[in-house]
Specification:
The protein is an all-alpha fold. The protein has 14 helices and two strands; from the N terminus they run ααββαααααααααααα. It has a two-stranded antiparallel ribbon.
């Protein structure tokens, strides 16, 4: 059957064997991932409601009624099975799959029993250590950021663990309104898939992994944006997807480093800036929230309603409108970064971060201007000379 499909696709001009295999794996892998996730979530919703495994509305919540929050279980099911069949070479990193299982069970326990933040942090440290030390998936070069290139082995381990934990938690924090975390996950997965595809046939397995992840997230969004069968991904989903995306990022950076035993086909000095652009919404949200809390004399990890999506909701936008605006900004910043990819990495990185903070604080700027002009108009109406 596979040979027949390859022979059939090879009739198309410019398609070789590798292209044909990639098309087949992407089609069937994404289809299976989508279907498994789509079929499993309704069953998860029914069990969650029956067993009262739901997210209750709180003071900081953006929802007003009880919602099942185990959507991540369906995504894990769809991704693991599909990747195992159509992109199993990625599991040559022997600690990747165990790390995914550890975070999956940590997320399930938190969504059902609610575990302490410290225990979740321990699980993240463990998984980040497993892949950085055990599987040697680590960041050991800064590409000239702040004038730094290759870094010490032990520093690279500590830095990689810190980055993985930061990405996981920033993705977890952005999961506050319908469609936002899922949409960012899709954008990031597709962006890395395109990058892996462009970097040659040796990276096709990773491109398939990326698109399988995007397909599962797409199926999740069908229910997350639904009014009748709404579900949240919960910590089960946010921890898992955040970890997978951090793996894609580190693997992407690693492609441009010459280790002596591999051939670097293309060196992209601004690779770190591209990664920041892909994650710019979670990154700018996390950094801005911490900054606001510190300026207000609060603990940096104290929960509040100062997240980026809260600021856009305060403008009167709905969940879907807010998600659409932020996702559009994310795509726009990625495009800008790609166009400027041959700039100096430090200048581009600063520019991307400035754009990210602008998006984060734009609602405050906009609302203050609206209030200013509204006050002027009100004063004119009552005859006050201004």
């Amino acid at each position: 059957m596979l040979d027949f499909l390859i022979d059939f696709l090879k009739q198309v001009p410019y398609l070789n064997d590798n292209h044909c295999k990639l098309i087949i794996k992407v089609f069937f892998g994404c289809t299976l991932s989508y279907i498994l996730t789509w079929l499993s979530i309704p069953k998860i919703i029914r069990v969650s409601i029956r067993k009262h495994l739901v997210a209750n509305p709180e003071k900081r919540s953006s929802h007003t009624f009880k919602i099942p929050n185990l959507g991540g279980v369906g995504m894990f099911y769809g991704i693991i099975i599909s990747v195992s069949i159509f992109s199993n070479d990625v599991f040559n990193y022997v600690f990747l799959l165990p790390s995914m299982f550890i975070l999956f069970f940590t997320g399930v326990m938190d969504d059902i029993l609610v575990i302490s933040p410290k225990k979740k942090l321990y699980a993240q440290i463990l998984t980040a250590t497993l892949i950085s030390v055990g599987s040697q998936i680590r960041i050991d070069n800064f590409f000239g950021v702040l004038g730094i290139y290759e870094i010490n082995y032990y520093i690279s381990i500590l830095f990689t663990i810190s980055v993985v934990i930061f990405i996981i938690n920033s993705f977890n924090l952005i999961d506050g309104i319908d469609g936002l975390a899922g949409g960012i996950g899709i954008i990031a997965s597709v962006s890395f898939a395109v990058a892996f595809y462009k970097l040659g046939s040796s990276m096709y397995e990773y491109a398939v992994f990326c698109l399988i992840t995007a397909a599962s997230l797409l199926a999740f969004l069908y229910f997350n944006l639904s009014k009748r069968y709404k579900v949240f991904m919960g910590d089960t989903g946010s921890l898992l997807i955040g970890f997978i995306l951090s793996f894609f990022m580190i693997r992407f950076l690693d492609l441009f480093i010459n280790r002596g035993d591999s051939v670097v086909l293309y060196h992209l000095q601004t690779a770190p800036a591209i990664c920041v652009a892909i994650f710019i919404i979670p990154i700018s949200d996390t950094l801005s929230v911490i900054l606001i809390r510190l300026l207000n004399g609060k603990r940096p990890f104290q929960a509040d309603k100062n997240h980026i999506h809260h600021r856009y909701l305060d403008l009167g936008l709905t969940h879907k409108q807010t998600s659409l605006v932020l996702l559009s900004f994310n795509v726009l910043i990625i495009i800008i970064c790609y166009i400027c990819r041959h700039m100096n990495v430090n200048i581009l990185l600063i520019g991307i971060l400035i754009l990210g903070f602008f998006v984060s604080f734009a609602p405050a700027i906009f609302s203050s201007k609206v209030k200013f002009y509204k006050d002027i108009l009100d004063n004119k109406k009552v005859g006050i000379d201004i």
